[in-house]
Write a structure and sequence with these properties.
- 43% of the residues lie in helices and 21% in strands.
- The chain is built from nine helices and twelve strands.
- The strands form three sheets. The chain has a seven-stranded antiparallel beta sheet. A three-stranded antiparallel beta sheet has the order 1-3-2. The chain has a two-stranded antiparallel ribbon with strand order 9-12.
- The longest helix has 23 residues, at 251-273.
- The termini are close together.
């Protein structure tokens, strides 16, 4: 992985430190001590950041965020969408696995397909962009893996009388997502063959089940693989879903696809939460 220059890293450290303390201003000595920089290096960086307007030097010789940086922040807030980061990842997944990769947003108790990328063989996929459908317990593991109480509350709203088996599979699915970063949905044995909807809008009887025991050599009637994208509050408002697989897949093949999807979602989550890229 490529590394940024030390100068860029040090400037970022200064800006991030001041941004983390928005109601305070800092003198040169404060920043030298906090960031473990030499006085000469820190002074040169501060002077450069003031010159371009990213910092402002007050009358008492302390530093705060500057007007140019504020303008950049406003522009980013007004125009940035997580889909800008997700789209290249979705395109690669769609092409690598010959599938459709969709970004489903959780809006209350509804999931909304707001973006997708399709491989060449899936042009004209039958679930149209913009589709909204009720969140069902089979999709809930991807959205609530780290918040089981919220999953139970959502389950009570959308499925007031869950069976013991549904509750067990919901919690098993959440545990699988916490451990592996993805969940596979397989066709229920009594579902209708040929139904290519991955997260079907059926309220009462979804034709898929979360798969929590993937045997490497066994073939599964795979319908979809889901993985969560986390925000700074460690919550999920977006899940990426790979669907349109051609035929059954072995447990080993599902794990390979699921791990690729989970890795993409982790990269997106890191970007959205401001975490450094993993080495």
């Amino acid at each position: 992985m490529s590394r940024s220059s030390p100068g860029v890293a040090r400037m970022a450290a200064i800006l991030n430190f001041i941004a983390d303390h928005p109601r305070q201003s800092f003198a040169l000595t404060d920043l030298v001590r906090a960031l473990k920089l030499s006085r000469a290096t820190c002074h040169a960086l501060l002077t450069g950041l003031v010159d371009v307007g990213y910092l402002y030097r007050t009358g008492d010789k302390t530093y705060v965020l500057g007007p140019a940086l504020a303008a950049i922040g406003r522009t980013a807030a007004e125009h940035f969408s997580p889909l800008q980061v997700a789209q290249p990842e979705m395109r690669k997944l769609a092409d690598d696995f010959d599938v459709v990769c969709g970004a489903y947003f959780l809006e209350g108790d509804v999931i909304h397909l707001r973006e997708r990328a399709a491989s060449a063989s899936h042009v004209g996929y039958p679930v149209p962009l913009g589709t909204r459908m009720p969140l069902r317990w089979v999709q809930a593991p991807s959205f609530f893996a780290r918040n089981p109480r919220e999953a139970d509350a959502a389950q009570a709203r959308i499925n007031p009388e869950p069976t013991a088996d549904q509750i067990a599979q919901l919690h098993g699915g959440m545990a699988f997502v916490r451990e592996h970063g993805f969940i596979a949905l397989t066709r229920r044995p009594d579902s209708v063959p040929g139904d290519s909807s991955i997260v079907v809008a059926s309220l009462d009887d979804p034709p898929v089940l979360p798969e929590t025991d993937l045997d490497a050599g066994r073939a599964y009637p795979i319908m979809a693989i889901m993985a969560p994208i986390y925000d700074a509050r460690d919550r999920v408002s977006i899940s990426l879903v790979m669907a349109g697989f051609n035929g059954a897949m072995t447990g080993a093949e599902i794990r390979k696809a699921g791990e690729a999807l989970a890795e993409a979602c982790t990269r997106i989550s890191r970007f959205l939460t401001g975490q450094p890229e993993a080495a």
